[in-house]
Design goal:
By secondary structure, this protein is α+β, with helices and mostly antiparallel strands. It has one domain: Gcn5-related N-acetyltransferase (GNAT) (Aminopeptidase, 3-Layer(aba) Sandwich). It contains 4 helices and 7 strands. A 7-stranded mixed beta sheet has the order 1-2-3-4-5-7-6, sandwiched between helices.
Length: 148
Amino acid sequence: MNTYCCRIAYGSEQYRQTIQHRDEILRKPLHLHFTEEQLAAENEQVHLACFDAESEKLLACLILVPEANRKIKMRQVAVAANLQRQGIGQKLVAFAENWAVQAGFSIIHCHARDTAVPFYLKLGYHIEGNPFTEVTILHYYMEKQLTQ
């Protein structure tokens, strides 16, 4: 499958597609839905997505949240279940890491669901601290040094 990753604009049609994508993959299984306040808070965040180059179909998406001390948080990483283990998530995370480095960030971190920990370990992230519960499920704080 020929794919490409790019930054998308908040409020655009592509952004609206990511809301539906994230809702289906991350929220509905937990019986949760986005609130208007949650979506409005995403205005200042960086939205990245991966698309099928031929059909322009959304395949995966994530959000980056700039923080202090050259750190950036990666959140809401969503790859459709039928497309997992095909390198799409890996490609999108690599794109996000490269974007973060170009933007001057040196550390990227996330709250990884327990089922996603092996994926992030494979990409060079490491667990810090103890597991915690977020949105009703077990998560781990994971971090990766991007630059010195």
